[in-house]
Write a structure and sequence with these properties.
The complex is a heterodimer. Chain A is mainly α. Chain A has helices spanning about 10-30, 35-60, 70-85, 100-115, 120-140, 145, 170-195, 195-205, 210, 220-245, 255-265, 275-290, 295-310, 315-325, 330-365, 385-430, and strands at about 155, 245, 370-375, 375-380. Chain B has helices at about 45-50, 75-80, 95-105, 125-135, 150-165, 180-195, 205-215, 230-235, 240-255, and strands at about 5-15, 20-30, 35, 60-65, 65-70, 80-85, 170-175, 200-205, 215-220, 225-230.
Chain lengths: ~425, ~260
Amino acid sequence: MASVYKFKPYNVGRWIIWSLFALVLVCAPLVFTSNLSVTMLAQMGIAVIACLSYNMLLGQGGMLSFGHAVYTGLGSYMAIHALNAVSAGKLNIPVSALPLVGGLAGMGFAVLLGWVTTRKAGTPFAMITMGVAELVFAMSLMFSEFFGGEAGVSGNRVAGQAFMGINYGPQIQVYYLIAAYTFVCVALMYAFTQTPLGRILNAVRDNPERVEFIGYNTQRVRYTAFIIAGFFAGIAGGLGALNFEIVTAEVVGAGRSGAYLLFTFLGGATFFFGPIIGAILMVIAFVLLSELTKAWLLYLGLVFLFMVMYAPGGVASLIMMNLRLAKFGKLRQIWTSYLALGLTALVMLAGAGAMIEMVYHLQLNAALGDQVRYMGVMLNAKGIDSWFGCAFVMLTGLGLFELCRRQYLSEWGDIQTEIEKEIKRRETAV
Amino acid sequence: MSTYALELKDVRKNFGKTEIIRGVNLAVQAGERVAVIGPNGAGKSTLFNLISGRFGPSSGEILLGGQRIDHKKPYEINRMGLSRSFQITNIFPKLSVFENLRCAVLWSLGYKYTFFKFLSGLKDANDRADQLLEMIHLDKKRDVLAMNLTYAEQRALEIGVTIAGGAEVILLDEPTAGMSKSETSRFIHLIKEVTEGKTLLTVEHDMGVVFGLADKIAVVVYGEVIAFDTPEAVRANAKVQEAYLGSSVADSQAGGH
């Protein structure tokens, strides 16, 4: 039996995945070359680190923090102050190392504040993190020397000595700095999950009481993990400061903390790679969706709602469930159902979306007249025919979707039974 | 100086005004197997909770190998060499069987809160976990999530997690609770095997099992130990018969527990 596990540093699958990840980071700006895409890619890198560090608490430690932005945000502030010190010639460290300043700051504040928050687990933990977050936000308004008040603190990342012509003037250079940090941080955070502390953290999530009876102080486990998460959060914050060259109080605000929670959950807290998906969605939502419609927060809320209700494992769990199907060669049986689900959902959403847009138009843009342009169609926000038409589209979509959903569920159930049988068969064959 | 593996001196515990444990004295020699019996609500589980540090006694002393352990934290007591199982299965449901056992061996092998080493490289921890897997006969279920095991398998894993750290004093709280007759006898065999040479305290209801397993029996009735002796002496003890055993022996012979 002892030969079943083996330390395989040259595990081929692992090498392929990590190489692909590096390749994506390197090539992404070569494929998406517009200014907007490079800006978004840079933000995605930062968000990936932030969400993964958050998931160290939520997914791996069962700690529902409502104040993770405290650590990313304070990291940002320390980094921008350090940047300004470099610009003024008072500090002599390369700009590339400034995210580490943010990391150390995040870690330092996690040592300080985490000592209070991690005394408790569960709901009290969540409450205390919220309290701490409010406290820090309130302080940001009080100490304007440090937090810069309403205007925030701005800096100029072209500072200090340029190294091999890299002065971080062009956005693309900053992107590659962020990409490098993202790769290293993701690798380190993955490595953490494979260490004794990482595994005990999972045990603390599942059954803290039992952990106390196998020799571990659960408080100390949570605290240590919290500090490590604070470090990576601070790095994300530091990168953010370099990327935007301005830090405002919003970065420590409740909205930011909520976004980390929401998108980590959407991406999937139960799998390591889930928050990476969440982070990408976060940037897409904040940058693109918010441009597309004023009602984007409402849509976001609805997506979150349905995700919690129907797929609490997030996007990652949906992917993994279907990978399992693919592994057993069953995906072919069900893809038509997916197509049907997708199409009917689109019809339903088109109807619902039109009505939401009309409501928003009436509320916010009434001065611009009653006409709303929606998916190439002109609607009249005050016209009964428009409303009736939209409702008809939505209800038809809903009805068809429900039919497809039932069909899909029964197919899904059948396939799962088949897979179970197949597993049993293989077991007995061995 | 006392050389007892575990010693309780006039241990008392109140919850509010109610005294649940009313002055328990108990001295267990190293290597003894002690069955703790008594009617429901007599305070057997409370006694285990006091010893293992789940809560502190209101008064009295508890000594493990001569050292005071009352009012120590559960993890401190565990590190000193006392480990316990639970009446209601208490394992890590979302971790695999192997991971459950590996978690339970980490502290005793000195890995503490390490995050600079990979688990896969810890040969001693992995070997020990695999060895435990074989001991509790779950080697075929190595990578199954603990929550997907059968009830009896979960109970075996519970024992495995309890003995994993190599504690010298083992407390098992109703290890065979909810098991069928045949499962129970197999399970008792397992318990004997894996606790060979250790000091064992176990709460057990099945009298047949108790007389087969224990070197000594402690009878707890209404928060007091009314007898602590060899099975034969306890069976002959008039006070015990009157208070508890007579009816229960009759029950167990009739097929109840």
